[in-house]
Protein backbone atom coordinates (compact mmCIF):
# COMPACT_ATOMS: atom_id res chain seq x y z
CA UNK A 1 0.00 0.00 0.00
CA UNK A 2 1.26 3.49 -0.82
CA UNK A 3 2.34 5.03 2.46
CA UNK A 4 1.78 8.54 3.78
CA UNK A 5 5.03 10.48 3.82
CA UNK A 6 6.65 12.31 6.74
CA UNK A 7 8.94 15.12 5.58
CA UNK A 8 11.22 17.15 7.85
CA UNK A 9 12.08 20.56 6.43
CA UNK A 10 15.50 22.11 6.96
CA UNK A 11 16.26 25.80 6.45
CA UNK A 12 19.75 26.30 5.08
CA UNK A 13 21.80 29.45 4.81
CA UNK A 14 25.26 29.56 3.29
CA UNK A 15 25.32 25.77 3.23
CA UNK A 16 24.40 25.25 6.89
CA UNK A 17 21.10 24.60 8.60
CA UNK A 18 19.81 27.46 10.66
CA UNK A 19 17.03 28.38 13.02
CA UNK A 20 15.56 26.18 15.61
CA UNK A 21 17.67 23.09 15.49
CA UNK A 22 18.41 21.60 18.86
CA UNK A 23 20.14 18.27 18.61
CA UNK A 24 22.26 17.35 21.55
CA UNK A 25 23.47 14.09 20.07
CA UNK A 26 24.91 15.61 16.93
CA UNK A 27 28.43 16.92 16.85
CA UNK A 28 27.31 19.96 14.93
CA UNK A 29 23.64 20.86 14.77
CA UNK A 30 24.28 23.17 11.85
CA UNK A 31 25.71 20.50 9.58
CA UNK A 32 23.02 19.84 7.00
CA UNK A 33 24.55 16.57 5.85
CA UNK A 34 24.73 15.16 9.36
CA UNK A 35 21.19 16.27 10.13
CA UNK A 36 19.90 14.80 6.86
CA UNK A 37 21.55 11.47 7.63
CA UNK A 38 20.04 11.52 11.12
CA UNK A 39 16.52 12.06 9.77
CA UNK A 40 16.98 9.38 7.11
CA UNK A 41 18.10 6.98 9.84
CA UNK A 42 15.04 7.89 11.92
CA UNK A 43 12.70 6.98 9.08
CA UNK A 44 11.98 10.28 7.33
CA UNK A 45 10.46 9.48 3.94
CA UNK A 46 11.87 12.54 2.21
CA UNK A 47 13.62 15.75 3.14
CA UNK A 48 13.11 19.33 2.01
CA UNK A 49 15.96 21.84 2.06
CA UNK A 50 14.85 25.43 1.91
CA UNK A 51 17.60 27.84 0.96
CA UNK A 52 17.17 31.14 2.69
CA UNK A 53 20.47 32.49 1.45
CA UNK A 54 19.84 36.06 0.42
CA UNK A 55 22.37 36.75 -2.28
CA UNK A 56 22.89 35.35 -5.73
CA UNK A 57 26.61 34.79 -5.18
CA UNK A 58 25.89 32.44 -2.31
CA UNK A 59 23.99 30.03 -4.60
CA UNK A 60 27.21 28.17 -5.26
CA UNK A 61 27.31 27.03 -1.65
CA UNK A 62 23.79 25.62 -2.07
CA UNK A 63 24.88 23.52 -5.05
CA UNK A 64 27.85 22.24 -3.06
CA UNK A 65 25.52 21.36 -0.21
CA UNK A 66 23.13 19.51 -2.53
CA UNK A 67 26.05 17.50 -3.82
CA UNK A 68 27.24 16.63 -0.31
CA UNK A 69 23.74 15.62 0.77
CA UNK A 70 23.15 13.55 -2.38
CA UNK A 71 26.39 11.67 -1.81
CA UNK A 72 25.25 10.60 1.65
CA UNK A 73 21.49 10.30 1.44
CA UNK A 74 19.59 7.31 0.05
CA UNK A 75 16.10 8.82 0.28
CA UNK A 76 14.61 11.48 -2.02
CA UNK A 77 15.09 15.15 -1.31
CA UNK A 78 13.71 18.43 -2.55
CA UNK A 79 15.50 21.76 -2.75
CA UNK A 80 13.65 25.05 -2.68
CA UNK A 81 14.30 28.76 -2.36
CA UNK A 82 15.35 31.31 -4.95
CA UNK A 83 14.79 29.10 -8.00
CA UNK A 84 13.56 31.10 -10.97
CA UNK A 85 14.93 29.58 -14.19
CA UNK A 86 15.26 26.14 -15.83
CA UNK A 87 19.03 26.66 -15.58
CA UNK A 88 18.78 26.93 -11.78
CA UNK A 89 16.86 23.65 -11.75
CA UNK A 90 19.27 21.88 -14.11
CA UNK A 91 22.19 22.75 -11.85
CA UNK A 92 20.43 21.46 -8.71
CA UNK A 93 19.24 18.21 -10.34
CA UNK A 94 22.69 17.57 -11.77
CA UNK A 95 24.10 18.02 -8.30
CA UNK A 96 21.81 15.23 -7.11
CA UNK A 97 18.53 16.83 -5.97
CA UNK A 98 15.45 14.76 -6.84
CA UNK A 99 12.90 17.57 -6.93
CA UNK A 100 12.80 21.32 -6.74
CA UNK A 101 10.23 23.46 -5.02
CA UNK A 102 9.22 26.76 -6.64
CA UNK A 103 7.00 29.39 -5.06
CA UNK A 104 7.15 33.12 -5.84
CA UNK A 105 8.83 32.62 -9.22
CA UNK A 106 5.96 30.36 -10.33
CA UNK A 107 3.32 32.94 -9.37
CA UNK A 108 5.24 35.69 -11.16
CA UNK A 109 5.82 33.48 -14.22
CA UNK A 110 3.39 30.54 -14.31
CA UNK A 111 4.94 29.28 -17.55
CA UNK A 112 7.99 28.35 -15.54
CA UNK A 113 5.99 25.34 -14.27
CA UNK A 114 5.33 24.02 -17.78
CA UNK A 115 8.88 24.77 -18.91
CA UNK A 116 10.26 22.75 -16.00
CA UNK A 117 7.73 19.94 -16.42
CA UNK A 118 8.51 19.45 -20.10
CA UNK A 119 12.25 19.65 -19.62
CA UNK A 120 12.73 17.68 -16.40
CA UNK A 121 9.39 15.88 -15.90
CA UNK A 122 6.48 16.79 -13.61
CA UNK A 123 7.76 14.40 -10.96
CA UNK A 124 10.46 16.86 -9.96
CA UNK A 125 8.35 20.02 -9.90
CA UNK A 126 6.87 20.82 -6.50
CA UNK A 127 4.82 24.01 -6.43
CA UNK A 128 4.86 25.51 -2.94
CA UNK A 129 2.01 27.82 -2.04
CA UNK A 130 1.71 30.03 1.05
CA UNK A 131 -1.81 31.29 1.66
CA UNK A 132 -3.73 33.18 4.32
CA UNK A 133 -7.44 32.95 5.08
CA UNK A 134 -9.04 36.31 5.73
CA UNK A 135 -12.43 37.86 5.03
CA UNK A 136 -13.83 34.60 3.74
CA UNK A 137 -11.11 34.03 1.16
CA UNK A 138 -7.82 32.10 0.87
CA UNK A 139 -5.26 34.43 -0.70
CA UNK A 140 -1.83 33.48 -2.08
CA UNK A 141 1.17 35.30 -0.58
CA UNK A 142 4.73 35.67 -1.89
CA UNK A 143 8.18 36.34 -0.51
CA UNK A 144 7.78 34.13 2.50
CA UNK A 145 4.35 35.49 3.36
CA UNK A 146 5.18 39.19 3.14
CA UNK A 147 3.45 40.08 -0.12
CA UNK A 148 -0.28 39.63 -0.78
CA UNK A 149 -1.14 38.85 -4.41
CA UNK A 150 -4.93 39.00 -4.54
CA UNK A 151 -4.79 35.53 -6.17
CA UNK A 152 -7.27 32.93 -4.96
CA UNK A 153 -5.63 29.78 -3.56
CA UNK A 154 -7.94 27.33 -5.34
CA UNK A 155 -7.63 29.06 -8.73
CA UNK A 156 -3.86 29.05 -8.44
CA UNK A 157 -3.57 25.40 -7.47
CA UNK A 158 -5.79 24.30 -10.37
CA UNK A 159 -3.63 26.40 -12.68
CA UNK A 160 -0.42 24.92 -11.25
CA UNK A 161 -1.73 21.39 -11.82
CA UNK A 162 -2.82 22.24 -15.37
CA UNK A 163 0.66 23.62 -16.13
CA UNK A 164 2.32 20.40 -15.00
CA UNK A 165 3.13 20.63 -11.29
CA UNK A 166 3.93 17.18 -9.90
CA UNK A 167 3.01 17.99 -6.31
CA UNK A 168 1.61 20.85 -4.24
CA UNK A 169 3.18 21.91 -0.94
CA UNK A 170 0.51 23.97 0.80
CA UNK A 171 1.36 26.07 3.85
CA UNK A 172 -1.45 27.76 5.72
CA UNK A 173 -0.09 30.99 7.16
CA UNK A 174 -2.98 30.98 9.63
CA UNK A 175 -1.77 27.68 11.05
CA UNK A 176 1.99 27.94 10.61
CA UNK A 177 3.78 28.25 13.93
CA UNK A 178 0.61 27.81 16.02
CA UNK A 179 1.16 24.10 16.77
CA UNK A 180 -2.61 23.74 16.73
CA UNK A 181 -2.82 21.38 13.79
CA UNK A 182 -2.89 21.62 10.00
CA UNK A 183 -5.54 23.40 7.86
CA UNK A 184 -7.39 20.14 7.31
CA UNK A 185 -10.65 21.39 5.86
CA UNK A 186 -8.85 23.35 3.18
CA UNK A 187 -6.34 20.55 2.58
CA UNK A 188 -9.17 18.07 2.01
CA UNK A 189 -10.81 20.44 -0.45
CA UNK A 190 -7.51 20.84 -2.35
CA UNK A 191 -6.83 17.12 -2.31
CA UNK A 192 -10.22 16.36 -3.84
CA UNK A 193 -9.90 19.13 -6.38
CA UNK A 194 -6.62 18.06 -7.98
CA UNK A 195 -5.21 14.70 -9.05
CA UNK A 196 -1.63 15.25 -7.82
CA UNK A 197 -0.24 14.70 -4.31
CA UNK A 198 -0.73 17.39 -1.66
CA UNK A 199 1.86 17.97 1.06
CA UNK A 200 0.40 19.56 4.21
CA UNK A 201 2.53 22.17 5.94
CA UNK A 202 2.06 24.54 8.85
CA UNK A 203 0.65 23.83 12.28
CA UNK A 204 2.13 20.51 13.43
CA UNK A 205 2.27 20.35 17.21
CA UNK A 206 1.69 16.74 18.19
CA UNK A 207 1.27 13.26 16.74
CA UNK A 208 -2.53 13.55 16.58
CA UNK A 209 -2.17 16.50 14.21
CA UNK A 210 -0.40 14.26 11.70
CA UNK A 211 -3.10 11.60 11.96
CA UNK A 212 -5.76 14.29 11.50
CA UNK A 213 -4.15 15.74 8.40
CA UNK A 214 -3.87 12.31 6.78
CA UNK A 215 -7.44 11.32 7.64
CA UNK A 216 -9.50 14.54 7.71
CA UNK A 217 -7.12 16.59 5.57
CA UNK A 218 -6.64 13.77 3.02
CA UNK A 219 -3.01 14.86 2.69
CA UNK A 220 -0.55 12.57 0.92
CA UNK A 221 2.40 13.82 2.94
CA UNK A 222 3.01 16.09 5.92
CA UNK A 223 5.90 18.47 6.37
CA UNK A 224 7.15 19.99 9.60
CA UNK A 225 10.26 21.66 10.93
CA UNK A 226 10.50 22.72 14.57
CA UNK A 227 8.63 19.77 16.13
CA UNK A 228 11.26 17.50 14.60
CA UNK A 229 14.27 19.76 15.17
CA UNK A 230 13.45 20.18 18.87
CA UNK A 231 12.55 16.52 19.23
CA UNK A 232 9.07 17.35 20.44
CA UNK A 233 8.03 14.61 18.07
CA UNK A 234 10.37 11.80 17.09
CA UNK A 235 9.75 10.14 13.77
CA UNK A 236 9.79 6.50 14.93
CA UNK A 237 7.19 7.15 17.64
CA UNK A 238 5.13 9.28 15.24
CA UNK A 239 5.09 6.48 12.68
CA UNK A 240 4.17 3.86 15.26
CA UNK A 241 1.33 6.07 16.41
CA UNK A 242 0.08 6.58 12.83
CA UNK A 243 0.27 2.84 12.22
CA UNK A 244 -1.84 2.24 15.34
CA UNK A 245 -4.44 4.52 13.73
CA UNK A 246 -4.39 2.34 10.59
CA UNK A 247 -2.65 5.00 8.55
CA UNK A 248 -0.21 3.37 6.09
CA UNK A 249 3.35 4.39 6.92
CA UNK A 250 6.77 3.00 6.09
CA UNK A 251 8.37 1.54 9.21
CA UNK B 1 32.79 -6.87 -6.24
CA UNK B 2 34.69 -3.58 -6.01
CA UNK B 3 36.94 -4.30 -9.01
CA UNK B 4 34.00 -4.62 -11.37
CA UNK B 5 33.59 -2.26 -14.24
CA UNK B 6 30.07 -0.87 -13.81
CA UNK B 7 28.90 1.47 -16.54
CA UNK B 8 25.96 3.84 -16.14
CA UNK B 9 24.49 4.70 -19.53
CA UNK B 10 24.42 8.46 -20.00
CA UNK B 11 21.86 9.64 -22.54
CA UNK B 12 20.95 13.01 -21.02
CA UNK B 13 17.81 11.59 -19.42
CA UNK B 14 17.61 11.76 -15.75
CA UNK B 15 19.15 11.53 -12.44
CA UNK B 16 22.39 9.79 -13.16
CA UNK B 17 24.09 11.45 -10.18
CA UNK B 18 21.94 9.64 -7.62
CA UNK B 19 22.73 6.26 -9.14
CA UNK B 20 26.41 7.13 -9.29
CA UNK B 21 26.45 8.25 -5.65
CA UNK B 22 24.58 5.11 -4.56
CA UNK B 23 27.25 2.92 -6.16
CA UNK B 24 30.01 5.05 -4.66
CA UNK B 25 28.52 4.39 -1.24
CA UNK B 26 29.04 0.69 -2.01
CA UNK B 27 32.71 1.38 -2.70
CA UNK B 28 32.37 1.22 -6.48
CA UNK B 29 33.56 3.88 -8.89
CA UNK B 30 31.16 3.63 -11.82
CA UNK B 31 31.90 4.86 -15.31
CA UNK B 32 29.29 7.17 -16.83
CA UNK B 33 29.32 6.82 -20.60
CA UNK B 34 27.39 6.85 -23.86
CA UNK B 35 30.28 5.24 -25.82
CA UNK B 36 29.38 1.90 -27.41
CA UNK B 37 32.84 0.46 -26.79
CA UNK B 38 32.82 1.37 -23.09
CA UNK B 39 29.31 0.00 -22.54
CA UNK B 40 30.06 -3.27 -24.37
CA UNK B 41 33.13 -3.90 -22.23
CA UNK B 42 31.41 -3.33 -18.90
CA UNK B 43 30.91 -6.14 -16.38
CA UNK B 44 27.48 -4.71 -15.53
CA UNK B 45 25.41 -1.98 -17.13
CA UNK B 46 22.92 0.32 -15.43
CA UNK B 47 20.30 2.03 -17.59
CA UNK B 48 18.61 4.76 -15.53
CA UNK B 49 16.07 7.30 -16.65
CA UNK B 50 13.71 9.99 -15.52
CA UNK B 51 11.51 12.02 -17.81
CA UNK B 52 9.46 11.54 -20.94
CA UNK B 53 9.57 8.32 -23.01
CA UNK B 54 9.61 9.66 -26.58
CA UNK B 55 12.23 12.26 -25.74
CA UNK B 56 14.39 9.64 -24.03
CA UNK B 57 14.10 7.17 -26.96
CA UNK B 58 15.17 9.92 -29.38
CA UNK B 59 18.13 10.60 -27.19
CA UNK B 60 19.06 6.88 -27.23
CA UNK B 61 18.72 6.73 -31.04
CA UNK B 62 20.92 9.78 -31.48
CA UNK B 63 23.72 7.87 -29.80
CA UNK B 64 23.01 4.50 -31.44
CA UNK B 65 22.18 3.09 -28.01
CA UNK B 66 18.76 1.79 -29.12
CA UNK B 67 20.54 -0.88 -31.17
CA UNK B 68 23.30 -1.57 -28.66
CA UNK B 69 21.32 -2.13 -25.45
CA UNK B 70 19.23 -5.14 -26.63
CA UNK B 71 22.43 -6.86 -27.81
CA UNK B 72 24.23 -6.63 -24.48
CA UNK B 73 25.06 -9.97 -22.87
CA UNK B 74 26.25 -8.90 -19.41
CA UNK B 75 23.71 -8.15 -16.63
CA UNK B 76 21.82 -4.92 -17.39
CA UNK B 77 19.63 -3.10 -14.85
CA UNK B 78 17.00 -0.67 -16.12
CA UNK B 79 15.62 1.78 -13.57
CA UNK B 80 12.24 3.58 -13.74
CA UNK B 81 11.95 5.06 -17.25
CA UNK B 82 14.88 2.79 -18.19
CA UNK B 83 12.68 -0.22 -17.37
CA UNK B 84 9.77 1.19 -19.39
CA UNK B 85 12.01 1.84 -22.41
CA UNK B 86 13.13 -1.81 -22.30
CA UNK B 87 9.54 -2.84 -23.13
CA UNK B 88 7.96 -3.19 -26.57
CA UNK B 89 6.04 0.08 -26.51
CA UNK B 90 4.63 2.76 -24.24
CA UNK B 91 1.35 4.62 -24.24
CA UNK B 92 3.39 7.68 -23.35
CA UNK B 93 3.48 9.58 -26.67
CA UNK B 94 2.92 6.19 -28.41
CA UNK B 95 6.59 5.41 -28.13
CA UNK B 96 8.24 2.30 -29.57
CA UNK B 97 10.67 0.86 -27.02
CA UNK B 98 13.72 -1.39 -27.15
CA UNK B 99 11.59 -4.55 -27.26
CA UNK B 100 13.57 -6.54 -24.68
CA UNK B 101 10.41 -7.33 -22.72
CA UNK B 102 7.41 -8.10 -24.99
CA UNK B 103 5.17 -5.82 -22.92
CA UNK B 104 3.17 -2.65 -23.36
CA UNK B 105 3.63 0.20 -20.87
CA UNK B 106 0.28 1.70 -19.88
CA UNK B 107 -0.87 4.87 -18.17
CA UNK B 108 -2.48 4.67 -14.72
CA UNK B 109 -6.15 5.60 -14.78
CA UNK B 110 -7.17 8.65 -12.77
CA UNK B 111 -8.96 6.52 -10.20
CA UNK B 112 -6.32 7.72 -7.75
CA UNK B 113 -3.71 10.43 -7.89
CA UNK B 114 -1.17 10.16 -10.71
CA UNK B 115 1.86 10.06 -10.53
CA UNK B 116 2.12 7.15 -8.14
CA UNK B 117 4.59 8.92 -5.89
CA UNK B 118 6.12 7.76 -2.65
CA UNK B 119 6.96 4.59 -0.75
CA UNK B 120 5.06 1.45 -1.63
CA UNK B 121 5.42 -2.24 -0.83
CA UNK B 122 7.22 -4.86 -2.91
CA UNK B 123 5.25 -8.11 -3.20
CA UNK B 124 5.75 -11.61 -4.58
CA UNK B 125 9.53 -11.30 -4.73
CA UNK B 126 11.50 -13.69 -6.92
CA UNK B 127 15.06 -14.29 -7.93
CA UNK B 128 18.56 -13.22 -7.02
CA UNK B 129 17.82 -9.49 -7.32
CA UNK B 130 15.64 -9.69 -4.20
CA UNK B 131 17.87 -11.92 -2.11
CA UNK B 132 17.68 -10.73 1.51
CA UNK B 133 14.69 -8.47 0.82
CA UNK B 134 11.53 -9.36 2.72
CA UNK B 135 8.14 -9.18 0.99
CA UNK B 136 6.11 -6.04 1.86
CA UNK B 137 9.20 -3.91 2.39
CA UNK B 138 8.93 -0.39 0.98
CA UNK B 139 10.66 1.09 -2.05
CA UNK B 140 10.43 4.58 -3.53
CA UNK B 141 8.34 4.98 -6.70
CA UNK B 142 7.62 7.98 -8.93
CA UNK B 143 5.81 7.18 -12.18
CA UNK B 144 2.64 7.79 -14.16
CA UNK B 145 2.97 4.76 -16.47
CA UNK B 146 3.26 1.13 -15.44
CA UNK B 147 4.22 -2.28 -16.82
CA UNK B 148 1.47 -4.88 -16.31
CA UNK B 149 2.23 -8.09 -14.42
CA UNK B 150 3.57 -10.76 -16.80
CA UNK B 151 5.67 -13.92 -16.78
CA UNK B 152 8.77 -11.68 -16.69
CA UNK B 153 7.63 -10.06 -13.43
CA UNK B 154 10.14 -10.52 -10.57
CA UNK B 155 8.19 -8.47 -8.03
CA UNK B 156 4.87 -6.69 -8.05
CA UNK B 157 3.39 -3.64 -6.36
CA UNK B 158 -0.18 -2.45 -5.97
CA UNK B 159 -1.44 1.01 -6.84
CA UNK B 160 -4.87 1.14 -8.50
CA UNK B 161 -3.95 -2.36 -9.71
CA UNK B 162 -1.12 -4.91 -9.42
CA UNK B 163 1.76 -3.91 -11.70
CA UNK B 164 5.38 -4.99 -12.26
CA UNK B 165 7.75 -3.48 -9.70
CA UNK B 166 10.58 -5.46 -11.28
CA UNK B 167 11.22 -7.54 -14.40
CA UNK B 168 13.78 -10.05 -15.57
CA UNK B 169 14.45 -11.82 -18.83
CA UNK B 170 17.78 -13.55 -19.38
CA UNK B 171 20.51 -11.00 -18.52
CA UNK B 172 18.09 -8.07 -18.44
CA UNK B 173 16.82 -6.84 -15.07
CA UNK B 174 14.63 -3.85 -14.33
CA UNK B 175 13.08 -1.94 -11.44
CA UNK B 176 10.19 0.49 -11.66
CA UNK B 177 11.17 1.92 -8.26
CA UNK B 178 14.39 3.78 -7.56
CA UNK B 179 16.77 1.46 -5.67
CA UNK B 180 19.20 4.38 -5.35
CA UNK B 181 16.57 6.26 -3.32
CA UNK B 182 14.96 3.36 -1.46
CA UNK B 183 16.95 3.35 1.76
CA UNK B 184 18.41 0.06 3.04
CA UNK B 185 16.12 -2.02 0.79
CA UNK B 186 17.49 -0.26 -2.28
CA UNK B 187 21.08 -0.75 -1.13
CA UNK B 188 20.46 -4.49 -0.82
CA UNK B 189 18.98 -4.67 -4.33
CA UNK B 190 21.90 -2.77 -5.87
CA UNK B 191 24.32 -5.05 -4.02
CA UNK B 192 22.46 -8.09 -5.33
CA UNK B 193 22.72 -6.77 -8.88
CA UNK B 194 26.42 -6.16 -8.53
CA UNK B 195 26.89 -9.66 -7.10
CA UNK B 196 25.03 -11.38 -9.96
Automatic annotation (TrEMBL), chain A:
One Gene Ontology molecular-function label: imidazoleglycerol-phosphate synthase activity
UniProt function note: IGPS catalyzes the conversion of PRFAR and glutamine to IGP, AICAR and glutamate. The HisF subunit catalyzes the cyclization activity that produces IGP and AICAR from PRFAR using the ammonia provided by the HisH subunit.
Quaternary context: Heterodimer of HisH and HisF.
UniProt-listed GO biological process terms: L-histidine biosynthetic process
HAMAP family found in the cross-reference section: HisF
Protein's UniProt name: Imidazole glycerol phosphate synthase subunit HisF
NCBIfam families, per the entry: hisF
Alphabetical UniProt keywords: Amino-acid biosynthesis, Cytoplasm, Histidine biosynthesis, Lyase
Pathway listed: Amino-acid biosynthesis; L-histidine biosynthesis; L-histidine from 5-phospho-alpha-D-ribose 1-diphosphate: step 5/9
GO cellular component, one term: cytoplasm
Annotated source species: Labilibaculum filiforme
InterPro entries: Aldolase_TIM, His_biosynth, HisF, IGPS_HisA/HisF, RibuloseP-bd_barrel
Enzyme Commission numbers on file: 4.3.2.10
Gene that this polypeptide is encoded by: hisF
Catalytic reaction equation(s): 5-[(5-phospho-1-deoxy-D-ribulos-1-ylimino)methylamino]-1-(5-phospho-beta-D-ribosyl)imidazole-4-carboxamide + L-glutamine = D-erythro-1-(imidazol-4-yl)glycerol 3-phosphate + 5-amino-1-(5-phospho-beta-D-ribosyl)imidazole-4-carboxamide + L-glutamate + H(+)
Compartment(s): Cytoplasm
Entry's transmembrane regions: none
Chief location category: cytoplasm
Active site: 11, 130
Family: Belongs to the HisA/HisF family.
TrEMBL record, chain B:
Protein name as catalogued: Imidazole glycerol phosphate synthase subunit HisH
Residue intervals of the Glutamine amidotransferase domain: 7-193
GO CC entries: cytoplasm
Species this protein is from: Labilibaculum filiforme
GO MF annotations, alphabetized: glutaminase activity; imidazoleglycerol-phosphate synthase activity; lyase activity
Alphabetical keyword list: Amino-acid biosynthesis, Cytoplasm, Glutamine amidotransferase, Histidine biosynthesis, Hydrolase, Lyase
Top-level taxon in the UniProt lineage: Bacteria
GO terms of biological process kind: L-histidine biosynthetic process
Positions annotated as active site in the UniProt record: 80, 178, 180
